Structure to design on (523 residues):
């Protein structure tokens, strides 16, 4: 089912045919839709020219002006990406895709004036993703008194190809990272235009999950994003901990030439002449982020050590049961010991000594989590505290969703998936109902409503005051290296010591640092 059609049906059924008053923005006049909730929505707002033909693998260009009034009443296609199997869309349905995809979705309370702005950056491993997914709807938080923006960015090879010919034509000797340039262009558009929607251009918070969270950290690192946001929230992903790279431009260009060979092209011109879906479907593996010397000027550790980051408050964290690289079946202690020594040959014994318990499978899950997401988020908080002045706040999400009886999925088992990767997003954004869009997959309990209030309240407080605060916790504690703490978010939220803080550096010291890979439920 096409997402734009779903949006149109839902708006019509809700009686949302009233039009929001036209506004003048880059490009001309625009009008949106007045929703029954008291929120106005502008869907499919162009922030850059379509990156097609000669503009493929170019920095985003200005929006061409239009005549008359632009009707921003439906979602734009998601950026061209590999075709996804139905199992990856069992919550939200399929969407139209196109290379012409650089659009924003904006939600604001009616009569909004100088409100905080929260800009959401989607995840998907830099290979898939959508700014229009129901799980990311901005309407609920807008109803609570902020302006919410979802931005789109190019993904896969169309968004992150490095290539020697691209480096020669760029003017700065590098290439790649076009998807990050899209994010920066969208934030520049927000700076210029969001006041027309009732937002405060000087009070912008960027937030994202998974690759969206990695993007948030990369934007914090990028000199091109300086001054475009005043705080950042990252959920389950960062380039810290030696996992994401970014790789050298030489390595990125070598991978770009390998893609060119796979596609049978003889040059960059030949690549630009190919249909976009062939490029999106290519199998050649690539590291998405490169040190191009322009958008990304070094590794995360290098940029922060030199104090070149955008020094803003950060709210970051991860979920209890997520990992990019599980240790595999662990039936007993002997299997656990063998797996840990195989994965971490230089630190295996010390790691095992730091993880106690009687359930080898549970210990393996915690080690797999901490060697990937745990380390990524801990290192981000530590580097911010050590090399910046702005505070870092952290959380661990532990709630297992209350699945409906008998519900099954083709890609994960509700009985064992636990507090999974992306499971926290609907609580932050107040979009839990989206998980029951086509069928009842969860039977939400009163505790879930309280947890949603806890988490979304903390995000809203952070966007308004720089400090997260919530009903059960009050003001959240900032990260302190002498006694690292975070907020455990569950049915009984509380402040706890950061789990295995003493052991996390062991993973950074290990000779084997895995790259992000693997599958997880796609909410």
């Amino acid at each position: 089912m096409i997402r734009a059609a779903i949006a149109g049906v839902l708006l019509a059924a809700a009686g949302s045919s009233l039009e929001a008053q036209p506004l003048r923005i880059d490009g001309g006049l625009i009008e949106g839709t007045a929703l029954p909730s008291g929120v106005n929505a502008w869907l499919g707002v162009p922030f850059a020219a379509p990156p097609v033909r000669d503009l493929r693998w170019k920095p985003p260009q200005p929006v061409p002006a239009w005549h008359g009034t632009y009707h921003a009443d439906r979602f734009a296609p998601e950026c061209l990406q590999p075709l996804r199997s139905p199992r990856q869309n069992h919550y939200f349905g399929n969407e139209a895709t196109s290379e012409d995809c650089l659009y924003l979705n904006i939600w604001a309370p009616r009569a909004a004036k100088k409100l905080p702005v929260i800009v959401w950056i989607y995840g998907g491993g830099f290979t898939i993703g959508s700014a229009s997914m129901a799980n990311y709807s901005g309407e609920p938080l807008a109803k609570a008194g902020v302006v919410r923006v979802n931005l789109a960015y190019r993904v896969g090879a169309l968004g992150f190809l490095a290539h020697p010919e691209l480096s020669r034509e760029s003017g700065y000797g590098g290439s790649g990272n076009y998807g990050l340039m899209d994010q920066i262009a969208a934030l520049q558009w927000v700076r210029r235009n969001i006041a027309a929607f009732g937002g405060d251009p000087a009070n912008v918070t960027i937030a994202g999950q998974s690759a969206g969270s990695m993007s948030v950290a990369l934007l914090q690192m990028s000199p091109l994003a300086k001054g475009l946001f005043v705080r950042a929230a990252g959920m389950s992903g960062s380039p810290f901990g030696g996992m994401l790279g970014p790789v050298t431009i030489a390595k990125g260009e070598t991978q770009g030439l390998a893609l060119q060979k796979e596609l049978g092209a003889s040059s960059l011109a030949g690549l630009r002449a190919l249909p976009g879906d062939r490029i999106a479907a290519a199998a050649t593996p690539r590291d998405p982020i490169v040190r191009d010397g322009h958008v990304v000027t070094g590794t995360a550790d290098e940029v922060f050590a030199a104090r070149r980051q955008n020094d803003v408050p950060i709210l970051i964290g991860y979920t209890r049961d997520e990992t990019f690289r599980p240790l595999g079946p662990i039936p007993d202690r002997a299997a656990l010991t063998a797996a840990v020594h195989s994965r971490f040959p230089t630190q295996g014994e010390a790691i095992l000594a730091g993880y106690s318990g009687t359930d080898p499978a549970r210990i393996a899950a915690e080690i797999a989590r901490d060697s990937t997401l745990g380390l990524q988020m801990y290192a981000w908080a530590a580097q911010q505290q050590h090399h910046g002045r702005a505070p870092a706040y952290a959380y661990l999400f532990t709630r297992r969703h209350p699945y409906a009886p008998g519900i099954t999925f083709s890609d994960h088992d509700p009985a064992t998936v636990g507090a999974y990767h992306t499971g926290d997003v609907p609580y932050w954004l107040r979009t839990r109902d989206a998980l029951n869009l086509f069928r009842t997959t969860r039977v939400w309990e009163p505790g879930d409503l309280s947890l949603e209030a806890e988490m979304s309240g903390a995000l809203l407080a952070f966007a308004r005051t720089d400090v997260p605060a919530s009903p059960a916790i009050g003001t959240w504690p900032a990260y302190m290296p002498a006694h690292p703490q975070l907020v455990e978010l569950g049915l009984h939220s509380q402040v706890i010591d950061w789990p295995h803080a003493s052991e996390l550096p062991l993973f950074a010291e290990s000779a084997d640092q895995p790259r992000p890979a693997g599958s997880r439920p796609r909410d």
Remarks:
- The chain is about 30% helix and 15% strand.
- The radius of gyration is 22 Å.
- Confidence is low (pLDDT under 50) at residues 1-16, 511-523.
- Residues 360-387 form the longest helix (28 residues).
